Amino acid sequence: MFVFKFEKMLNIKENMIKKCMLEIANIEAVINKSFEMKEELEQENRQRMRKLNGALRKKPDKDMLLFLSDNIAKTQKEIVRINLEIEKLKKEKAKKIDEATMLNIEKKKLEKLKEKEYENYVIEENRAETRFLDEVANIKSANNIIGG
Asked: Which tens digits make up the pLDDT trace of 58-72?
């Protein structure tokens, strides 16, 4: 009886821990993808800056300068947005790690409680067996006295 109760709770905790670990892995994948996007945007901005500097050294074309400047500014805004998203994801990941840690601690407590309950169960079973054997011995003894 006690085994079923504790096993069920342990299984629930284990499933919750697995779910947290999966969520952490998913968050990590999104963070990595965001870093890659950020790196690509920064690379594009460096290329645009080189083009802009090259255009400034030559005869400047006003439309090309405006185009490159606008693209650099837009890309920079996107980089800032991605950085904010990455920070948000890192905080969410930290929360999930804390949650998984707490679940793990609770699981270990349940395991210890299960062990303690099992020890108590064994002790109680031994007591019941001892009482039964004492009763049997008393009955035999009484039969020997009466019959003997």
From this structure: 877 888 888 888 999
Q: What is the largest CA-CA distance in the chain?
A: 130
CA-to-CA dists, residue 79 to 26, 29, 108, 139, angstroms: 21, 18, 43, 88
**Quick one: which of 78, 83, 71, 82 has its CA closest to 45?**
71
Q: pLDDT tens-digit profile of 45-58?
A: 999 999 888 888 88
Q: Using one digit for the tens of pLDDT, what is the confidence trace for 106-139?
A: 999 989 988 898 898 899 999 999 999 989 888 8
Residue environment code for 131-145, b if the CB has 16+ CB neighbours within 10 A, otherwise e: eeeeeeeeeeeeeee
Tokens of 56: 């400034």
d(CA 122, CA 128): 10
How far apart (Å, rounded) are the C-alpha atoms in residues 122 and 95? 40
